[in-house]
Design a protein that fits this description.
An eight-stranded mixed beta sheet has the order 32-33-31-30-37-40-39-43, with helices on both faces. The protein has a five-stranded antiparallel beta sheet with strand order 28-9-8-27-29. The two termini are 45 Å apart. Helix 36 packs across helix 38. It is of the alpha+beta class.
């Protein structure tokens, strides 16, 4: 074996050895056993935390695949909430109660209506006028009698009337409502039986007491009882009762109905239930056989009695009753004069006889009702006492008894009793006998309320017979009259419908009907609890026949009611956003699908033996404009990560695209510094010292920033930074901490110190110089002892000749481009010499030497061209005889790492990366195409990364999910590629030009240099990744911070986003419109995705239970129909459906949901069958190709993870197509704010689905992230997890980048046309290329979103026509505005602000208020701070948590939130 490249090991453990005890005896020796030789367990534990997380992810993904389409189907299937039915008409909420639609449907003649008048004199024409003249519009009074017992069973407590009219039975309008009803706005009873009640109004004053003792005894604890009788005989006994007293036992024979109040009255605070037989609400306990708890023998009372106090109890005017308890009745004073007409005349005839004093003071408010004695006042017989107020007695449930000895109307007597006189009832009111004046109520001043009372003579008061005085009046409470003020319509044909609506109609935000408002046509039972109709020619004597009208002027009931079809959300806006949701769902499935697989296994530990399988390792450092410090920092990291004991050569290639002489000089000085590092000593070898020095140097420089090294910033580098960059600080630390000061004499370290001085002086020199741009410039460094160190340094600056600005920058040989000629028998070793003879092709002087082939000097002017130049150069460099190993390594693949100039590999980069190219048995895995590490910018903390420079969600979530199938795409820097070349493979290859020859008019073939990395577009990393996928290779993602970057201006990141999208557009067109090998697999994948979306659309929109296979005749229709019938019966037989009252009362809803379920089952079955067929075909192909060894003539996936990689590649090539979804959703929410909403969803269903989808969405994120963090923590004790800041920033980017994607599509199509038609090189960009446009697009777009949110709220609070659900849309647009607030402010004011604190402090208030930069500074301090960032980043998660519960009151936001969950993803 030839000399290797290794340095001394300082740790046996790192070499792969572990100490293990052989036996339990302490005297027994321990041996060192390599870990690779340790016995592996026979089987691994099936359970681990990472495995549990994976299982959770798979389960949640499968449930998500089922739930979301089912929810989309539910959106268009579930009925709209009833209050929003007939949305095209003015508001009239439908009945929402279960079974409410069946009330009117099952009623027979529920409302009796008066007939439509047939004479003009019966109509009122004054309801409308035109210029003072009456028109033919009219109205008339309508009587409505309600008799519907179904309403009582439906708990319809308060029922209001609504009157509708129509002239043609098609167009209907409202002509009257409860405002026109009399005597009350509602039917006081709902049936004829309950509607017949009898009422009786008492006098204003109760009977005066005969003595103080009686008064106090009667009302200390009072019972007031109404005795209702139908019998004249019983009435006569009651009327003539001796002493107005009735024994309690007589109530059974004298009263048919009894009831009343009890307790302490006159605003008493004593609880009524202290009185025996009295309830807490002050009513007497009455049963059929008892009164106040006392059994009455032979009693059989029917009905019930209510007593209601009149609001003006001292007045004899109309009685308006109150519902107050008996103890709160307002008592008043009454005056009674017991003198007769003869006594008055006798007293007036006695000389000197004045007015006698009244017995008690008028102001004695404490007197009990009825308390008072005669003796003083206007006459000796006058007395003032307290009386109960006037009240109304209502008897219900009593009907005319059978027989002949009955009244036509019942009579009632008001009786009273007390605890002291239980068993004895007395009449409470005095009967006017005509001899004395009746008692009169007094006002607050003590004056009679009836002003004529004093002038009345006892004998002049008319007497009312007892039967009439005690008679009760019949009240038909189920009848009311409509006395309209609105016109019904023109005289002539008219249909008039009476509709009974429940009080809940006015509880749902509905206030009142408008005159003549349009109404939906029949059936009316969706709005009316009872309905009836009349018809005829109004106000006309002639009555010709009318359609839908019977001969007796009634509208048949079946024409007014019928089966109610639920209104569904199948409007254009709903279909639009459902289809958009399904598209987003499909894209989300593509993103999440790879996570169901298990990642490819790999070698878990670095071993120097692994490098024996490699030809060499390369770290390529491309740079175009960075300064020397930035490049040097990168190269330091590239050297420092050289693998330990590397058995192959290790190359660091600096690719200087800027052709800068100062960079070459600094690179040479670095080589001299390495030469000056002390050689071997007792502490280690030369390679060990080099590694030790660079490890410390990497640690000193990894956290530098561009502003510190003055890259793009004016000024000189500070001395501490310069010492760190030159290595002086590193040497100082090694002396102090690693013992170099003691291990090496001063003269040994002196050359190293001198080299550091030279390098430091060179770094201070900022002069730039370019030389010989038209020639390649190459410089190689190797150690003085070639076998002492594996490291090789290369400075590579490929030719960059000036080109005529008039000509196209073509990738083929054409006038204006540079080329060189290759003889037919040229050797590969002559490559650089031939390139040195490059020249420009001049139009008219073309070289036609057929013995030589013209080769373009530069087919790519971008990064890909530099990478390919480096790869070709090092390949030829390795073929030089002095660099051959003489063993299998000369034909082995090599690793090619890319590290952009602003990044720096850390020392463990290759120790971590190399094992990923090997399997668990340490054999090189040829299917691993490349590895990728995340980008990391330490100065860009997540909370300050306003524009998502770290692209954190892509690396910390998307890449981890994609890595499950090996489908992570390369991101350029931090990627390491395994490159295979066939032995003897030429550095030149043939390619067909894209431009036709001017003479032959055909596309000829020409020679180009070998290209490993794609040069067809600006995203060479994605294009090269796609090439690996089509070959069947996979990638490995390493979720560790193995590279530290220096973040450039975040604004430049927007230009990068635009560039990636533009390159993606070009690559997509180049791929799908080409015939390259394997592209058909992408087409198949894309068509499969399109079919998946089409199946979703079909499943959601289909209405019949059919299948495509049946329609195509592939499945027997009879068998299929039989299967569907059986499935339908099974679904209907589910207990929860059969027992559901909702479905029992609404069978159509059950049919809809059963049909929806069948459609969904058919869709799931079809998807499962399709996936099963793909799986079986793939596994069969795997057996054929990998098991048997047969190769197919075409490439086709032979494992399911390959299909996952194809899905990812398809997503990378098409993600920009969905840029419009962000515009659609933002616009849709603004549409919902300002436009009329035509869709409404049920809160319960929306809440249920949203809660499930929310849990699944977050569950998959958590389980996926936790799965990988557990893995990395076990492997490397390092955790990089997804934070709330990352999720928030990705949502920002979704909305923020929408205009960039649209702009990129336009520019990408333009680039592709130039590439295809003119053969132009579109693989490069210049500094600031379209960056200004990208920045301005985002600046003004985000500002527009913020202003739009403000305008939406202003409209919401000021407009009188705000639509239902506008609040939810306002909240959504506000969240969108808050999401983009940070980027907007950052782009407008910058960070840090242009005005410093010192400058602001030096200005006066007047100067500040007139200075724009002061406002920018204030805005920056207000928004761009950690506090505001913390509030905004947690606002999103808080919204996600609260959203499902908000859908209970605002169902509309559920749709918005679903889109945010499936739309806020990023692609690279």
């Amino acid at each position: 074996m030839p000399p290797g490249y290794s340095y001394q090991s300082d740790s046996s453990d790192e070499a792969g050895y572990s100490t293990s005890a052989i036996g339990s005896d302490d005297s027994q020796e321990n041996t060192l056993t390599p870990k690779s030789q340790q016995r592996k367990p026979w089987c691994r534990s099936p359970f681990s935390m990472a495995g549990v997380c994976h299982a959770c992810y798979v389960c949640q993904f499968l449930i998500f695949m089922v739930v979301f389409p089912l929810w989309a189907k539910w959106l268009v299937t579930s009925p709209m909430p009833t209050q929003y039915w007939h949305d095209t008409y003015p508001k009239w909420p439908a009945i929402g109660a279960v079974g409410g639609h069946e009330l009117a449907l099952n009623s027979v003649n529920p409302i009796q209506m008066s007939a439509i008048p047939q004479t003009p004199d019966s109509c009122n024409y004054s309801c409308s006028s035109w210029r003072g003249f009456r028109t033919a519009e009219m109205n008339f009074q309508v009587s409505l009698t309600l008799n519907d017992s179904m309403l009582s069973k439906a708990y319809a407590h308060t029922v209001y009337p609504v009157l509708l009219a129509s002239a043609d039975f098609k167009d209907w309008w409202v002509v009257a409502d409860r405002r026109h009803a009399w005597p009350s706005p509602f039917w006081r009873a709902r049936t004829a039986k309950a509607g017949h009640s009898y009422s009786y109004l008492t006098d204003t004053c109760t009977k005066p007491p005969t003595s103080n003792a009686e008064g106090s005894d009667r009302f200390t604890s009072t019972y007031v009882l109404a005795c209702v009788t139908w019998s004249p005989t019983a009435f006569a006994k009651l009327e003539s009762a001796k002493g107005d007293e009735i024994m309690e036992s007589e109530l059974a024979t004298l009263c048919n109905t009894v009831g009343g109040v009890c307790g302490w009255s006159c605003d008493s605070t004593i609880p009524s239930d202290r009185l025996p037989g009295c309830t807490a609400d002050g009513t007497i306990e009455v049963t059929k056989t008892s009164v106040a708890g006392t059994q009455i023998p032979h009693a059989n009372f029917v009905g019930n009695v209510k007593m209601r106090e009149c609001l003006h109890g001292s007045s004899s005017s109309e009685c308006e009753t109150a519902t107050g308890l008996f103890k709160s009745w307002k008592c008043h004073k009454c005056l009674y004069d017991s003198s007769t007409d003869d006594e008055d005349r006798r007293l007036q005839g006695i000389p000197g006889m004045g007015a006698p004093p009244i017995a008690i003071d008028d102001d004695d408010d404490d007197a009990l009702p009825g308390a008072g004695v005669a003796g003083a006042g206007k006459s000796a017989s006058s007395q003032v006492y307290l009386s109960l107020p006037r009240f109304k007695v209502i008897a219900e449930g009593t009907s005319v008894p059978s027989g002949t000895d009955v009244f036509s109307q019942p009579r009632t007597f008001i009786l009273t009793s007390s605890v002291a006189h239980r068993g004895m009832w007395k009449k409470l009111y005095k009967v006017n006998d005509g001899k004395t004046k009746p008692p009169v109520a007094l006002d607050s001043k003590g004056e009679p309320v009836d002003k004529t009372w004093s002038a009345q003579e006892p004998g002049s008061i008319p007497m009312i017979d007892a039967a009439s005085a005690h008679a009760m009046n019949l009240q038909a409470q189920n009848r009311l009259d409509i006395e309209p003020s609105w016109c019904y319509g023109m005289q002539g044909p008219m249909y008039l419908v009476a509709c009974a609506v429940n009080s809940t109609l006015y509880d749902s935000g509905f206030t009142r009907f408008k005159a003549g408002q349009q109404a939906a046509p029949p059936p009316f039972n969706d709005r009316c609890m009872a309905v009836a109709g009349r018809c005829g020619h109004a106000c006309q004597a002639e009555q010709p026949s009318m359609t839908n009208c019977s001969s007796n002027g009634h509208i048949e009931q079946k024409l007014l009611v019928g089966s109610v079809q639920e209104e569904k959300n199948q409007t254009t806006p709903v279909w639009l956003f459902v289809y958009v949701l399904l598209i987003g769902f499909g894209v989300k499935v593509v993103m999440l699908c790879p996570g169901i697989f298990s990642p490819y296994p790999h070698c878990r530990r670095y071993d120097p033996v692994l490098t024996e399988s490699l030809r060499y390792i390369v770290v390529c450092v491309p740079s175009a404009g960075e300064n020397k410090c930035t490049v040097l920092r990168n190269v330091i990291g590239a050297v420092g990560c050289m693998p330990k004991d590397c058995k192959c050569r290790y190359h660091v290639a600096f690719v200087d695209e800027g052709h800068r002489a100062e960079q070459k000089a600094a690179f040479g000085k670095l080589g001299k510094l390495i030469d000056a590092i002390p050689k071997s000593s007792k502490t280690g070898s030369y390679s060990f010292h080099v590694s030790q020095f660079f490890h410390q140097w990497v640690d000193d420089t990894k956290k530098l920033e561009l502003k510190l090294v003055k890259d793009g910033v004016k000024g000189d580098i500070e001395t501490p930074i310069l010492e760190r960059m030159s290595g002086r600080a590193t040497l100082r630390k090694l002396k102090r901490e690693q013992g170099w000061e003691h291990d090496f004499p001063a003269h040994v370290l002196q050359p190293l110190e001198a080299a550091i001085d030279i390098l430091e002086q060179d770094l201070k020199n900022t002069k730039r110089e370019q030389r010989d741009l038209h020639r390649d410039d190459v410089y190689d460094w190797e150690p003085q002892d070639r076998n002492s160190l594996a490291l090789r340094l290369h400075y590579l600056a490929r030719a960059k000749p000036p080109e005529d600005e008039r000509t196209i920058k073509a990738q083929h040989v054409a006038p204006g481009t540079w080329y060189y000629q290759v003889p037919v028998k040229a050797q590969q070793s002559e490559w650089l010499q031939l390139r040195a003879q490059g020249k420009e092709m001049v139009y008219g002087l073309e070289d036609d030497d057929i013995t030589k082939r013209n080769v373009p000097l530069r087919t790519s002017r971008g990064k890909a061209g530099g990478l390919n130049f480096t790869e070709n150069y090092l390949s030829l460099y390795a073929d030089e005889p002095k660099n051959l190993y003489g063993d299998q390594r000369d034909d082995s693949p090599y690793l090619f790492s890319i590290c952009d100039a602003r990044h720096q590999f850390q020392t463990d980069f290759f120790h971590t990366t190399i094992p990923y190219f090997f399997d668990e048995d340490q054999n090189l895995d040829p299917r691993v195409g490349f590895t990728q590490c995340p980008q990391f910018f330490h100065e860009m903390a997540d909370k300050l990364d306003y524009l998502d420079n770290n692209n954190a969600q892509f690396f910390r979530l998307n890449c981890m999910i994609r890595n499950c199938c090996g489908g992570v795409s390369s991101c350029g820097t931090n990627g390491t590629w395994a490159i295979y070349h066939r032995p003897g493979e030429s550095i030149w290859e043939m390619e067909k030009t894209r431009v036709r020859d001017a003479e032959t008019k055909v596309k000829s073939k020409e020679y180009v240099e070998r290209r490993t990395f794609h040069e067809s577009c600006k995203v060479e990393d994605t294009a090269s990744s796609l090439q690996q996928v089509l070959k069947g290779n996979h990638s490995q993602f390493i979720n560790r911070r193995l590279s530290y970057g220096m973040a450039k201006n975040p604004i430049d990141y927007l230009a990068a986003v635009q560039r990636w999208a533009e390159g993606g557009v070009v690559l997509s067109l180049q791929t799908f419109l080409s015939c390259h090998k394997g592209v058909y697999m992408l087409w198949f994948t894309f068509l499969f995705f399109v079919c998946f979306l089409a199946s979703l659309f079909h499943m959601v929109s289909k209405t019949r239970t059919s299948a495509l296979l049946v329609d195509l005749g592939l499945v027997d229709k009879t068998w299929f129909d039989s299967l569907i019938d059986q499935l339908t019966d099974k679904l209907r037989s589910f207990a929860f459906l059969v027992q559901s009252e909702t479905f029992q009362r609404n069978p159509q809803l059950l049919n809809d949901y059963v049909t929806m379920t069948i459609h969904f089952i058919l869709w799931v079955t079809g998807i499962c069958c399709t996936l099963l067929a793909v799986f079986l075909a793939t596994e069969l192909l795997k057996v054929i190709q990998r098991g048997i060894g047969c190769k197919l003539p075409c490439v086709w996936p032979d494992e399911m993870r390959w299909w996952g990689r194809l899905l990812i590649s398809m997503d990378n090539l098409t993600y920009f197509l969905w840029f419009w979804t962000a515009f659609f959703w933002i616009g849709f929410n603004y549409y919902s704010v300002f436009a009329e909403r035509s869709y409404h969803f049920g809160a319960t269903g929306m809440f249920s689905f949203m809660l499930i989808v929310q849990i699944l969405s977050w569950g998959m994120v958590i389980s996926s992230s936790l799965r990988y963090t557990l893995g990395t923590s076990m492997e490397a004790n390092e955790v990089i997890s997804l934070s709330m800041d990352n999720i928030w920033r990705s949502t920002q980017l979704f909305y923020m980048s929408a205009p960039l994607l649209g702009y990129s599509i336009i520019k990408g199509v333009q680039d592709f046309m130039r590439y295809k038609m003119y053969g132009e090189d579109i693989s490069y960009w210049v500094g600031g290329d379209r960056g200004a446009m990208s920045t301005n697009l985002v600046k003004y777009w985000t500002l527009l979103l913020i202003i739009g949110a403000v305008v939406a709220w202003i409209y919401y609070f000021t407009s009188s026509s705000v639509q239902v659900g506008a609040l939810g849309s306002c909240l959504i647009v506000t969240l969108i505005a808050l999401d983009v607030l940070h980027p907007c402010v950052y782009l407008w004011v910058g960070s840090p602000p242009s005005m410093s604190d010192e400058k602001a402090a030096s200005k006066s208030w007047a100067q500040c208020l007139t200075d724009r930069s002061w406002y920018a500074r204030q805005l920056h301090n207000l928004i761009l701070n950690s506090t505001m960032t913390g509030l905004l980043k947690w606002l999103g998660p808080a919204w996600f948590v609260a959203m499902p519960f908000l859908t209970l009151v605002m169902p509309y936001i559920g749709v918005n939130q679903a889109f945010m969950m499936i739309g806020s993803t990023t692609n690279r």
